[in-house]
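Attaching the record inline, Q. Sequence:
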Amino acid sequence: MTELAHYFVDRAIATITLDSPANRNALSAQLVTEITDHLASAVADERVRAVILTHTGTTFCAGADLKAAAAEGGPDQGTKRMLDLLRTIVELAKPVVARINGAVRAGGVGLVGACDIAVAGPGASFAFSEARLGLAPAIISLTTLSRMSERAASRYYLTGEKFDAVAAAGSGLITTATDDVDAEITAIADALRACSPQGLRETKPLTTRTVRTAFAERADELQADSARLFASEEAREGMTAFLQKRPPRWATQ
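Structure, as predicted:
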């Protein structure tokens, strides 16, 4: 089976590269399993101070794998995978840095929100596309609502509009928008290399307290909401229309 997420370590920084071009790095069972295993490897390796999560091609992550959800006979497994992956990143004992220079959609935006630092280049674009599919950004609200201003979240959650890296930085979703994403990532990696393992391990929980509280209080409820919506008639129409590359029946000009 072809590997979908690559892992390597260089001078105390582990890099996980999403490389599933066939489905635009959508979060299939295999991809999520490989990401999770690589994160575990980074935690177990005492040399590693931090993790960079990046991608090949023009898509960082397209969100849920809609075709796989249908093949699995329902949304329960996929929504649980999403929830568990986001929780793993938030609770990881080492910082996770997102390097983005491609499209980020739906659940992929939740992945960005789960990271401690997020840097996006000129090729990046973002969209909470759920409402256009008959869904809601339920699970990923756990990792994005505490990052974004309420006004920005309202606009982009409700409209499904595409927005660029500058707007993402202005909203609080990402840390930095830059014309040279690799230079910025190099600077951040060097800064993290200067930090002690204990310092990083003890500092991260201070910065993730709000999102960890949200997981503790609402994760089960939001997973149930997400699974219910995925199974609804409107969502079936929205996902079918998306896969068939046509407007859903409720879209008006």
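DSSP finds eleven helices and ten strands in the chain. The domain at 5-180 is CATH 3.90.226.10 (2-enoyl-CoA Hydratase; Chain A, domain 1).

More tomorrow.
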